[in-house]
Amino acid sequence: MKKEHLIFGIHPVLEAVKAGTELDKVYVQKGSNNPKIEEIVQQIGNNQTTINYVPIEKLDKLTRSNHQGIVAFSSPIKLHDLESLVETVLESDVTPLFIILDQLSDVRNFGAIIRTAECTNVSGIIVQKKGGAPISGDTVKTSAGAIFKTPICKVDHIKDAIYYLQGSGIHVIAATEKTQDSLYDLDLNQPLAIVMGSEGHGVSKSVINICDSAAALPMLGEINSLNVSVACGAFLYEVVRQRTR
Fold first, then answer.
1. Residue 135 contacts residue 147 (beta carbons within 8 Å)
2. Could you give all domains of the chain from N- to C-terminal order, each with its CATH number?
3. φ, ψ (nearest 5 deg) of residue 142
4. pLDDT by residue (tens digit) across 63-105?
5. 3-state SS, residue 28
6. DSSP labels for 179-200?
7. Residues 189-214: tens digit of each pLDDT
8. How far apart are CA 97 and CA 178, in angstroms?
9. Phi, psi (deg, nearest 5) at residue 135
10. Is 154:190 a contact under the CB 8 Å cutoff?
């Protein structure tokens, strides 16, 4: 992440929180009992900021200055509340289309997905607070500015987000090679959320198990998987094809 997004030291981070600065991640020194740091954590509360407790060596690596046990990264975008976004989309005349990223870690893949999502009129992208790719300068650059046009929500748990979407009448599809069902056999002319998995492991089995359906793309060569951003593009444009034919 670019240096201009880096905030460190108790007073600067506290003032950023009080000013309502959108924070993407906060790193707190593991074992710290500083009451000022505890105040910051409490003020952050249940918003969309990821809080990680890390060894002091991690903080030392992030900044050579006196970090005082806390380092934060401000987000270059405003994050959205999932429930509010879903409600707004359902009240519109657009058929909902969400992307859920299950532990995607590469910022360039993240940015590429955001760019394709904007081009295909995706309603919003849902990521988990912990374990996912950060919203960094590289994400912004790779998205070609689409990150400022596509709503992004951070949630505590992907599964809870899936249950909420399902309860809102949205059909959830896992994009996975671990199924014989083809994407091209599914009806995509309905409210949808598509789950894309991590680069190394794909969509986790426990997430696949709670989705309404699973779908794969045909693999005709010797390699049995696509880059996740490419696969996401293929899924999204099949949705576009079905909805515009």
1. yes
2. 3-74 (3.30.1330.30), 82-244 (3.40.1280.10)
3. -65, -30
4. 877 899 999 888 778 889 999 999 999 999 999 999 999 989 8
5. strand
6. -S-BGGGS--SS-EEEEE-BTT
7. 999 999 999 888 889 999 999 999 99
8. 23
9. -90, 90
10. no
